[in-house]
Amino acid sequence: MKVLAMDTTTKSATVAVTQDNVLLGEFTLNSDKPHSQKIMPLAEDLLVELGLQAVDIDLFACASGPGSFTGLRIGTAAIQGFSQATGKPSVGVSTLEAMAYTMGEVLDCNICPLIDAKRDQVYYALYKSGTEMIAPSMESIDTVLAQIACLNKKTVFIGDGAEIFKDKIIATSEQFSVCPAQLNVNNAVGVALLAQKKYEQKTALKPFPEYLIKSYADELK
What we know:
CATH class of the largest domain: Alpha Beta
Distance between the termini: 45 Å
Radius of gyration: 17 Å
CATH superfamily of the largest domain: ATPase, nucleotide binding domain
Low-confidence stretches: 215-221
Number of strands: 10
Largest sheet: 5 strands, mixed
Number of helices: 8
Strand order of the largest sheet: 3-2-1-4-5
Number of domains: 2
Structural class: alpha/beta
Strand content: 25-35%
CATH topology of the largest domain: Nucleotidyltransferase, domain 5
């Protein structure tokens, strides 16, 4: 099975193509350029480099949130567009679960993905060996760290939120560590691998945005 996956939930725009759980190629652009200008050229260029066309893809997948409100809409719309144009299925997976998925395959400890939600808040969840320990939510970074410190378990933090709050995380507990900076940029590989697994298990969801909270603009209405 060939899977084309996207993640536009954070600053980075990333696209990957896998075949039977093996990475064929991935393009990531971690810049301030709008996702509306980044994601489709990345997807098209990746397909060209791999000698593939959209009709060669068996499953389209996206990270469906939480994350950037605009990014979520752009990513899910792009995947839905590919699906409708080719007649192939499309699915969405949790951004946080995808971030933890590949790490959980090699690390025997708790994995806590963090996405910066601004104003000292983060989207977060907690996983251990693919099992969800704490459901996705949004809290202040201080609340998150206090909650996880109470578990007194070795925990690895990953994501742009982990990079932003690295010093605070390390200072909170000797049980806490942060992934290297190069691993804290979202990538679409985890999305592709997790999407294929959930699709084959018939547990995958439709590619619709999962916001968790209202946007700041909605709060002002």
